[in-house]
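Run: sequence + zinc ion -> complex structure.
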Amino acid sequence: MTIRPILIHPDPRLKKTCAPVARITPEIETLAADMLATMYQAPGIGLAAPQVGVLSRLFVMDCSKDPDAGSRPMVLVNPEIVSVSEATNIYDEGCLSLPDQYAEVARPAEVRMRWTGLDGRVHERDFDGLWATCAQHELDHLNGKLFIDHLGPMKRQMITRKMVKMKREMDRDRA
Ligand code: K2U
Ligand code: ZN
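>> structure
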């Protein structure tokens, strides 16, 4: 298990549409384990492969809030949305690739998703609440979309400018 570095916006790799996973290989299983370890350490409740620089269509999530309830890590390979609810939810979203930036994003409140599990079988399930928000946020990542792409141009530019400044300072500290 390896904690992998998380790419920070702006980064061209975060804007790419990721390629489908052809088959579940040992490398994919290792990547999924590394992504879960990286997500828990962040901490976060979701993480998409492009965020660790792998432009493949898979993400992990575990939105089980209550630690006593035990964690419920999920690995979704080649995920797709089958249907969404009319109703929407607004959530103050963040992103591990845009540290300390938050903004309200409206998304369908419920979403039915289909994906291939590490067991190689096709799964289908309805998500609601934070799981629905997270799954849609992660699927966006696989299509090169960030939560700021759901905002107006002014707010998106303001956040991007802040991230450019933060990256310059981080690079200076590292130099
Ligand atoms: O994809 C990511 O960067 C991880 C995201 C997932 C997420 C964003 C917005 C709403 C739900 C999930 C987060 O940074 S994980 C951090 C977090 C923790 C608790 C609640 C919301 C976000
Ligand atoms: Zn994100």
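>> summary
Helices lie at 26-41, 129-142, 153-174. Residues 95-97, 137, 141 surround zinc ion (ligand 2) (CB under 6 Å).
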